[in-house]
Specification:
two-stranded antiparallel ribbon; 22% strand; single chain; eight-stranded mixed sheet
Length: 233
């Protein structure tokens, strides 16, 4: 089994769609994806993800199923600066890098900064969505491994935070580490393949993370949307 996590194009958040650059990126992405034997397409319910998928789907004469849980990761924490709700990533290193529990897949949600917000709850909703989707293909989670799974390729058009949350779960890496130390640029493609041992246990291996070769080959620069945050003081 193969899973492709695809971030939406350069976003215009004010209209939940794409910028002019984002539409160019989506078109270039479609030139890549039409040559990939994808069995099923899924999208976030948000416009920017649907719009990114549209050039590919139109070329192939296909449709995509909308998965409500695939929306941008909605968990929040309380900002230590403003007291307002905010996303749980793009935090300056001094707030989390000295806490070992953040690096542990089983304990990352325990420190107060995360525990008092909704991040763990949303992460649990996300992983439940992932497992329900995989079960459609006969792939059932057992502890940190899986059993079964059809020889299918599926594409998930979603968002940076959500893509990293899915990647975190499928690789067993703490979402705090994933969301702070990895970046999925607009229209990047992250691919995981399933490997199965002789006893029937499987796991997913990331063979490419954040691939934007479709942009490089066309001379289209990478969008930095979501990168290099200006940390709050």
């Amino acid at each position: 089994m193969k899973i492709m996590i695809i971030r939406h194009g350069d976003p215009d958040y004010s209209i939940d769609s794409l910028t002019e650059k984002g539409w160019r990126e989506a078109e270039l992405l479609s030139h890549k994806l039409v040559n990939v034997p994808i069995d099923d397409f899924y999208t976030s319910p948000l416009g920017r993800a649907k719009d990114t998928a549209s050039p590919t789907l139109k070329k192939l004469g296909r449709t995509a199923e909308v998965l409500p849980w695939l929306r941008e990761f909605a968990g929040t924490i309380t900002s230590p600066y403003t007291g307002q709700e905010r996303i749980p990533w793009d935090l300056p290193p001094y707030l989390w890098c000295k806490e070992p529990r953040y690096y542990d897949i089983n304990h990352w949600h325990e420190p107060e900064l995360i525990a008092e917000g909704s991040v763990k709850e949303v992460y649990e909703e996300t992983v439940a969505g992932v497992d329900a989707l995989l079960e459609r293909y006969g792939c059932v989670r057992e502890g940190m491994a899986y059993r079964g799974g059809e020889d299918k390729t599926i594409a998930l058009f979603c968002h940076c935070g959500m893509g990293l949350a899915v990647l975190s779960y499928l690789t067993g890496i703490s979402p705090m580490v994933m969301m702070h130390n990895f970046f999925l640029s607009p229209t990047s493609v992250t691919t995981l393949v399933m490997e199965t041992d002789p006893k029937g246990y499987s796991h997913f291996r990331a063979v490419q993370v954040g691939d934007i070769s479709h942009l490089y080959v066309a001379g289209e620069p990478m969008s930095e949307s979501g990168l290099h945050p200006q940390f709050e003081k």
